[in-house]
Amino acid sequence: MKQTILGAGGAIGIELAKALVAYTNDIRLVSRNPKKVNLTDTLLQADLSDRDQVFTAVADSEIVYLTVGLPYLTKVWQQLWPPLINNVIDACLHHNAKLVYFDTVYAIGGNNVNHITESSPISPTSKKGEVRAEVAKHILDSIEKRNLKAIIARAADFFSGVKEKSVMMNLVYDNLATDKKALWYCDAKVVHSMSYAPDLAKGVAILGNTSDAYNQIWNLPTDPQKITGEDWIDLFATELNTRPKYQVVPGWEIKALGLFYPFMKETYEMRYQYDRDYFFDSSKFNNYFRYTPTTNAMAVKQTVAQLARTSVSA
Question: What global pTM score does this model have?
């Protein structure tokens, strides 16, 4: 049973390839520069912005996982996400493949982030959220009107030993590891859920290989502990054997720094995820599959240990 990962080179794609071996040894990894994760993986180099290459990538697949991570730029998302999801849906329908879409919660905005469940209203308050809402709507409409078999699998902000594009790893881990102050956006004393990439990948693999899970939205497994930014900094500081020193970057400063740093400019509209409680509830998944997510403390311990091993072997 061929299972294909579109966008296989990122943190989730890599962990998903590891998790899928529990279900199949016929895994196809698709990206611009794919690399094997398992010995039996097959690789396909493709530009997923090209419709024909998407159709080639999906061919012969029973399940297709979309884990693409586009550059964190609003204009890029607006330009590339709508045609990408259209092409992926068309290809899945043409080749009779099921789709599992790895999603964020960007489409949920304002105070609706105080407690995020599968029934939280689509309420984007950012341009990136509007794009994600459009993508999710296209999938749900295709389920209803075109008989697409699909899953929307949502994650909160997440972290792992792959540091690229991770706010937690770049602003907290990297700074504490070099004896600098950790940085946190807006308010370090409000709740901020974070997911652990290996748990997310296991959740995606479970959902993809569970027939009853299709045509639904699922929040992926995440520790239900209500933990603050300050608590996260304490956890990383403990594992790094350093003091939990940190500095809060207020919203106005994010905007000001955006004049000089493009990443900060792109982050400013997402400040609503940091200036109030942001709690991600995966109880639907945890209860249905009797799954116990890795605790936040253990996730941090494993991440720091993984990076220490990587540093030694480098």
Answer: 0.95
